């Protein structure tokens, strides 16, 4: 493959491997565009993982708040052959798309046209999908639309959560990056498949994270997996607000009231739900640090005592 001049658009840590792979393939990354932030931590401005990677590797990186005329001129003057987007976080306007000789490739973590939008992995988990995947496509001015270059399916495992799926899809897609670039240079696109369902994965909101114990136990489990990083699945248990970070479940019919303690020991914290029991592995009490179920059992707290009391009342 010929060496290309490329501008990369990305922000979070999981987009770093794709940028790194592009450089290792020998392409000339002229410029990187990332999200800016006003957040600070201990007096130091917080920057994206992509921006930090660029600083460590002496790569020019800009963080425009908008695609104004100055930003457009910086990108246009680079005379880049190709753009590459992975989790940048903003729509790229048409005039910038058209400034690239071969256009812009976007990597999206779904099998397009299913789950277009901001949170495809989270919605795939919430909807109990058996498969997801990734898609490389040539972008246009619409959201996650354009001619598809290649896609690959991924089987969602029971041990997966949003973080592990994101990492696995990134790993698989990084291995296919060279193929995607070759395809766009050669205008080699997949035929559209009208039988594939089009769906949208809207942005996750904080209020999406709440669940009730009368919800189906499998749905609760999926919500915990989907919101593992943010906003983290939350509920109330004996008037205590808790976040459930990691859990498993048992599907089993029972006649017990929902939200009661089935087992609480060094091995298990089982709570009754609709259609079975949720096995809580890691949780966070309000205003406290995350702890495991074992930490909770071995500790000394009113909440621990309340769970043991409910267990003894059953």
Amount of beta strand? 25-35%
The portion of residues assigned to helices is 25-40%
Structural class: alpha/beta
Tell me the name of the CATH class of the largest domain: Alpha Beta
CATH fold group of the largest domain: Rossmann fold
- The appropriate CATH architecture of the largest domain is 3-Layer(aba) Sandwich
Give the overall silhouette. Answer: elongated
Any idea what the radius of gyration is? 23 Å
Number of strands: 17
Average pLDDT level: 93
Largest sheet: 7 strands, mixed
* CATH homologous superfamily heading of the largest domain: Formyl transferase, N-terminal domain
Oligomer type: single chain
Number of helices in the DSSP assignment:
10
Q: What string gives the helices and strands in order?
A: EHEEEHEHEHEEHEEHHEHEEEEEEHH
Trace the largest sheet across and list its strands. Answer: 5-2-1-6-7-9-10
Distance between termini?
68 Å
Which regions are unreliable across 5 or more consecutive residues at pLDDT < 50? none
């Amino acid at each position: 493959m010929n060496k290309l001049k490329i501008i990369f658009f990305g922000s979070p840590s999981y987009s770093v491997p794709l940028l790194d792979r592009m450089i290792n393939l020998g392409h000339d990354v002229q410029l990187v565009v990332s999200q800016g932030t006003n957040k600070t931590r201990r007096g130091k401005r917080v920057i994206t993982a992509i921006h930090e990677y660029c600083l460590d590797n002496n790569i020019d990186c800009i963080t425009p708040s908008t695609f104004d005329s100055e930003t457009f001129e910086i990108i246009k003057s680079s005379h880049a052959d190709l753009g590459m987007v992975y989790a940048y976080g903003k729509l790229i306007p048409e005039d910038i798309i058209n400034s690239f000789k071969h256009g812009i490739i976007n990597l999206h973590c779904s099998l397009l046209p299913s789950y277009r939008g901001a949170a495809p992995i989270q919605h795939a988990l919430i909807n109990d999908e058996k498969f997801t995947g990734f898609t490389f496509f040539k972008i246009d001015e619409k959201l996650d639309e354009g001619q598809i270059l290649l896609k690959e399916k991924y089987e969602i495992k029971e041990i997966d959560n949003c973080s592990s799926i994101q990492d696995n899809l990134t790993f698989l897609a990084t291995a296919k990056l060279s193929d995607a670039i070759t395809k766009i240079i050669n205008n080699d696109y997949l035929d559209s498949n009208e039988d594939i369902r089009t769906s949208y994965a809207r942005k996750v909101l904080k209020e999406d994270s709440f669940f009730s114990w009368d919800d189906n136990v499998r749905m609760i489990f999926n919500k915990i997996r989907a919101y593992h990083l943010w906003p983290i699945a939350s509920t109330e248990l004996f008037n205590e607000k808790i976040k459930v970070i990691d859990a498993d479940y048992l599907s089993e019919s029972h006649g017990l009231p929902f939200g009661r303690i089935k087992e609480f020991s060094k091995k298990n914290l089982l709570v009754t739900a609709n259609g079975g029991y949720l096995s809580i592995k890691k949780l966070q009490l309000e205003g406290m640090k995350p702890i495991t179920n074992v930490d909770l059992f071995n500790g000394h707290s009113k909440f621990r005592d309340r769970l043991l009391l409910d267990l003894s009342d059953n």
